[in-house]
Amino acid sequence: MSNTKKAYIAGGCFWGMEDLFRTRPGIVDTEVGYQGGQNENPTYRNHPGHAEGLELTYDPSKTSFKEILDFFFRMHNPTTVDQQGNDMGSSYRSAIFYQNEEEKAEAQEMIDLVNASRKWPSKVVTTLEPFAPFWVAEEYHQDYLVKNPNGYTCHFLRFEDSFIEG
């Protein structure tokens, strides 16, 4: 996999996000972890300010950053501050951790498209945050819903239709 890229997003509990993204075309690997917080080597019990996030390794010949973001905005609620379903707190914020100005511009373009669609009843509150170290979560969190098929998730595909025009 010499020609892969990585994308970093957060949108609530990382279990559900990982479970939906793992089977997407072009996604090569997923890791759940913590990003954007105040301490090094965060853990589930100690991750102040970190979002529960997802590191996506993808093949850009099969999917794009924009397509990843399109799915992201359809599988979680980007209009709630620090909340997804019953999960509340900054760990569950909606965020895109951009790695360069091109990703930041594409993310802002997607937010504008989502807002313009009026599919969500409120405006997107997803934050655009500069890339911060991604700390891989404990092993028992990796592939959690594969290991525990009846486990909790608040993620599901809310809209079939893409936000991307064309």
What does this structure look like?
Its EC number is 1.8.4.11. It catalyses: [thioredoxin]-disulfide + L-methionine + H2O = L-methionine (S)-S-oxide + [thioredoxin]-dithiol; L-methionyl-[protein] + [thioredoxin]-disulfide + H2O = L-methionyl-(S)-S-oxide-[protein] + [thioredoxin]-dithiol. Belongs to the MsrA Met sulfoxide reductase family. The protein has 166 residues and is of the alpha+beta class. The chain has a single domain, classed as 2-Layer Sandwich (Peptide Methionine Sulfoxide Reductase, Chain A). Helices cover 24% and strands 24% of the residues. The chain contains four helices and eight strands. The model has no long low-confidence stretch (mean pLDDT 95).
Layout of helices and strands:
Elements: E1 5-11, H1 14-21, E2 27-35, E3 51-58, H2 65-75, E4 83-84, E5 87-88, E6 94-98, H3 101-117, E7 127-130, E8 134-136, H4 144-147
Parallel strand pairs: 6-7
Antiparallel strand pairs: 1-3, 1-6, 2-3, 2-8, 4-5
Helix pairs in contact: 2-3
Strand order of the largest sheet: 7-6-1-3-2-8
The number of strands is 8
Number of domains: 1
For the record, what is the CATH homologous superfamily label?
Answer: Peptide methionine sulphoxide reductase MsrA
Task: Summarize this structure as a short list of keywords or feature phrases.
Peptide Methionine Sulfoxide Reductase, Chain A; Peptide methionine sulfoxide reductase MsrA; 166 residues; peptide-methionine (S)-S-oxide reductase activity; two-stranded antiparallel sheet; Met_Sox_Rdtase_MsrA_sf; Met_Sox_Rdtase_MsrA_dom; alpha+beta; six-stranded mixed beta sheet; 4 helices
